[in-house]
Amino acid sequence: MLYVKAPAKINLTLDVLHKRPDGYHEVEMIMTTVDLADRIGLERRTDGQIRIISADRYVPDDHRNLAYQAARLLRDTYGIKEGVTITLEKKIPVAAGLAGGSSDAAATLKGLNYLWDLKLTSDQLAVHGAKIGSDVSFCVYGGTALATGRGELIQELPAPPNCWIILAKPSIGVSTADVYGGLKINEVIHPKTKDMIRAIHEKDYELMCEAMGNALEAVTLKLHPEVSMIKEQMMKFGADAVLMSGSGPTVFGIVQHESRVNRIYNGLRGFCDEVYAVRLLGERDPLA
Ligand SMILES: C[C@](O)(CO)[C@H](O)COP(=O)(O)OP(=O)(O)OC[C@H]1O[C@@H](n2ccc(N)nc2=O)[C@H](O)[C@@H]1O
Ligand SMILES: Nc1ncnc2c1ncn2[C@@H]1O[C@H](COP(=O)(O)OP(=O)(O)OP(=O)(O)O)[C@@H](O)[C@H]1O
Questions:
Q1: Strand boundaries in 46-100, DSSP class E
Q2: Which residues, judged by CB distance below 6 Å to any ligand atom, belong to the binding site of ligand 1?
Q3: I want to staple 107 with a disulfide (CB 3.0 to 4.6 A). Which of 5, 40, 214, 248 is the partner?
Q4: pTM score, two decimals?
Q5: Mind listing the pLDDT tens digit for each residue in 21-64?
């Protein structure tokens, strides 16, 4: 059995520029991976079948699973006769805005590249990833990056200033398509992407706090007012800055002093079942 980690991502900025002819939206977003991860187990099969094993009832165990789609894409593209059993140990909350499924797909691409000895580069895997979902290309590389296009064009960035991240996910699932569908482009408050890039290059934590912004928040907060309440509580318990990740509903707070982490974590546990205190992974995995 080959095991591969599938880390979650958060969006430090998420800007939506306009709607594209293909129905997607042109985005400009800065994403970074955190040390909350699913674990993917890959085992070769001689029958050519792709099988998913997952204990999480919210995760499909058939062709709808993004890890399944990743395996099928490589098997069919490269004429692989073998199959694979994919065991998903889910730790990332589902439909949370943390790219759980996208990261599982990216981990499956990387693991099968090794298992089936395909010798593909990260860039080639990222191109395949883009066919599975808009966040998968970023998840193939990991680390920190500026994503543009529909999210599949990746420009690597250095690690952001070091800090703790507290993630709080209310017990609701959010459909990414519904959130993008609910966006009024002419009302978008554009985040300060350039300031965030400067904050990352200069390791300027205060500027990073100021520059955080997510154009999709306005839609999700209207659909789910409890997300606003979690943002307020996160600030009240001492976070330096707070933002919703992706299309939500997960809210993340950032804090530099470890002493405050427990107070925020314990404070949010009163409101959310799924609360995590995690670190930024920052740089790309050199073995990726
Ligand atoms: C919200 C984010 O997670 C932020 O990282 C991503 O932009 C969405 O990434 P994702 O979940 O991988 O998105 P996909 O699975 O490719 O698309 C799901 C749906 O979201 C909408 N979508 C997604 C990405 C994008 N740039 N524009 C869109 O309008 C489309 O309706 C699409 O059918
Ligand atoms: N491996 C997977 N893990 C979790 N969900 C999956 C997976 N494969 C397919 N799905 C489906 O995808 C939906 C979205 O799940 P996911 O956890 O990827 O959302 P997300 O974190 O909001 O993703 P993103 O941030 O990319 O929008 C789930 O409701 C689930 O039905």
A1: 50-54, 83-89
A2: 11, 14, 24-25, 27, 29, 99, 102, 133-135, 150-151, 176-177, 180, 246-247
A3: 40
A4: 0.97
A5: 999 999 999 999 999 999 999 999 999 999 999 999 999 999 99
